Every structure is written in C-alpha cells, then in structure tokens.
Amino acid sequence: MVGHASRLLIAARGRARIDDLVGKSGLSTSQFQRRFATQVGMTPKLFARTIRFDRALIARRNAPGRPWTDIIHELGCFDQAHFIRECHVFTGLPPGGLIGEWDNIFFPAHD
Q: Among candidates 52, 54, 43, 57, which has minimal Cα distance to 77?
C-alpha cells in the first residue's frame, strides 16, 4: 500500500493529493503518515516536495537557458517565493546559486 502510494506520487511528479492517497489506502490519515514515514523515510508531503524539486532541477539541467519561472509554473508552483524557499530548504542556496554546478549537485565531488 505505501509502495503503491509512493509510486503514484512519483508518476504524478509529486502532484498527487495526499488525501486521495490516504483514502485509497484504507487507513486513517495518521496511520498512513506513520507507515509512509517508516517505509519511505519521510512524510508523504516531504516526499512530494522532494519529487517536485528534483523535477525542477532536472528541467533546468536539461534546458539551462530556460527561466526558473517557466519551470516552476510548469511543475505546479504558483509562487516564485515559494520555490526560492524550497531551494533554500533543500540546498541552502537560492535558485541562482545552483547555476553552473550541475556535476556537484547531481554527483557531489568527493574530497
């Protein structure tokens, strides 16, 4: 059940409604959250955020000249400030700080 829910989140690029996944699971919201966190290592909401952020990085890597605004709107972020906060949470950098370091972002250098 959690494996199926996580695959649905990946297939939906992090845009599946968590309430819908809970409803399909047959569990209460708290039971679903606990089982998901135990099996996946993070809450469903954080997992969805991680997937969306990953999709944004991949889109930017594949089209470096494409504006972040276009990318984040395509991925369902309606607010640029929200994406900037997500960027800080996941990387400690603003989106502009990620440019030019793709090898280190996707394959961190080993010292």
A: 52
